[in-house]
Amino acid sequence: MSLFDPIRLELFATEHAPSTVDAQQALLVLRRLIARRLDGSLTTLTETRVEQSFNERVFAEVFDYESVLRRGSGEFHVMAKNYYPAEGEARKGADDLALGFFGPDRETPEIHASVELKDPGQDLDAPEPSYQNRSPVRQAFDRVRGRGIPWILVSNLFEMRLYSADDDRNYELISLTDVISVAQFTRAYALLSRRTLLGDPGSKFPRDKTAGPPLLRLLHGGPPHMLVERPDSLRLVHEAFTPGGADLPLHELEDGLLAAFKRMPSAGEYGAWPPHVPNVMALELEDDRLVLAPDVGGGVIGRLEFSKNGILRVTEYLDPQGEDHRTVRGADLANRVALFILFARNAFDPCTLNFKWRLLDLAGSQCIIPSEWIDGGRTQRLGAGPATAASSAHAEPGDLRLLNDGLLVEHVTAAIRDLLFPYRHVADVTRSIFRVRMSKDHVRAVIAPALGVLAAIRQATEAESDAAVGAADLRAALREDA
Q1: Parallel, antiparallel or unpaired: strands 97-102 and 110-117
Q2: Angle made by CA atoms 41, 44, 50, in degrees to the nearest 5
């Protein structure tokens, strides 16, 4: 079983994603590993003949650890062949590699992960006669148990397993030779990178798990958090983020949210979006983000997070529309997506953003698409789909302040096509995927309330601009008079 809830891990990976350029550079290195596996070179070599190159190219270059010679002085993060004496329940022995903080200024190293490497392609669960019939996983746990090292990595160079040192049954599997896309690498990076596994050298590791490295905090209930699943609702997750990442001070996050709420005029008349009309004084600081999670009538009705690394996330419940099942209606979903785009455009500066949406808890639900959205079709009840649907990360070209009706319709159309793609059974009982074909005129009619908000925002922006120009003219006239 996995260590982490897959949805929370996806959200975590988004928050700690490398830039696209860095991800593509890392994929070039992994392609060499894939090529060596395919040509058979690695299967003829033992782990000891490959590990030095593997450690330098994969851990240092791909996952951003500083080896001793990648930096001319100061701290580094990779140390090979660390010997551990017998201590309590732990056996004596040496690991192949340790990840942590090492250097001349540290009296004792701070080890975050012990790494056990085996021959390329070796079965990591099979007992080894030369190690008292213990498997590679058991060898790693026997050596580290009780030493205060939180993570164990076990690898045969083609795959990597990440274990918590407190749990030898559950792990996250990273198949290095299957990582061929930026999306796949983003998950691998979230689990194995220096940024997430080690964090900052000043973090209170390992004594305080709530203030330690990001991945350790996630393991022990840290951010990102989710709304709990409800039997009568679906959950919709909206995300907006800057393409190159960010490092924003908290006051800018607060200013951005205040501006976003202020510029959503009379949101109530458009169907209560955002999902919680906030008392902005209720904003709370949690870890590295501002959070708003209002409790109405004894239950949280939505959650908003704006993190310092430039990710705005809103999670809301989609209320049931059918009598017997959880149902999502295309028109309701489209309007919420459109209103989030408008909300996000006012929370960020600069205004070039990517958007992503996730629709959760679809298992056992029905998606009802109005007949006018389907060319020549009737109302469709589309069941038996995946439990979760996610949109592609749609990039917003240029400056969002130039957003017009046509561009908003384009965005909403793309998102809805990605989210509403349930399977349809055909005669041979196999499943085929089809996408809803939507007329842009119909989408425009569905999101008419959002287009009304856009027009109001545009008018308010023009009024602010005119006021600013007027103030500038007045100041210039006063200077001339003086």
Answers
A1: antiparallel
A2: 75
